[in-house]
Amino acid sequence: MKVTIKVWRQKNNTDKGRFETYEMNNANSHMSFLELMDVLNEQLEQEGTEPIHFDHDCREGICGSCAMYINGRAHGPQKGTTACQLHMRHFKDGETITVEPWRAQAFPVIKDLMVDRSAFDRIIQAGGYVSVNTGSAPDANEIPVPKNIADEAFNAATCIGCGACVAACKNASAMLFTSAKISQLALLPQGQVERQQRAERMIAQMDAEGFGACTNTMACSAECPKEIDMANIARMNREFLTAKAGSEAIEVS
Question: In the CATH scheme, what is the code of domain 117-252?
Answer without folding.
Answer: 1.10.1060.10
